[in-house]
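lol ok so funny story. i was supposed to be doing the assay writeup but got distracted and ended up predicting the structure for this chain instead. priorities right. anyway since i did it might as well share w the group, maybe its usefull for someone
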Amino acid sequence: MSARKGRKLVERVGNHDPYWMSYVSRVTQAAALWLRVRDLLKMARENLADADAEWEKLEHHLQNFSMHMVRKLRDHTTPALFRQMDDVTDWVNRPQDLSSNPLCWALLGSLEATTILLGSMKAARSIYGANTLRAAASLSSQLNSYQSMAFLAYEEVRSLMALICEDAVPKSVELVIHEVESGPILMVRYEPNPQRDFD
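and the output, tada:
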């Protein structure tokens, strides 16, 4: 078993609450979007013309990505339930009420993060108009707040998994979503504790 030392292990998470999938997906998407917004803010400080173009590009991407995820959700839920989905935030905490399909659980988390950022972009533009630097700074601040809130929910789940992974270095435990042929599955990734005897 000594070969396990020094590398991260990835194992399937067994029985779990459906919202775990949504939370992990939401944090993953928020982290990726935060990088885009950080780069946008940096660009706005250096070259406003490029920042304006990048703003439009990001907003267009978010609109298309949101529509893509909404179409996927529509295809994997019943029409009656889909029509009830006014606020995606309400469904993130109880995704099993929308569908028994884990794909939908993951989509809800990604969709929430994406639509939150898209709404924040539109709000920032309406407040700051053509001042891309101030709009980008506001957007970055809003996304930081959202990411902190999303991470608190994720951390609750991650800490539960840290208790289960007895042979893990405590701070190394993280939850990830892997795409397999049957759809997304929740996995736990961690670094084995070298102090434990695996033999």
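Residues 18-150 form one domain. The longest helix spans residues 132-164.
back to the writeup now i swear
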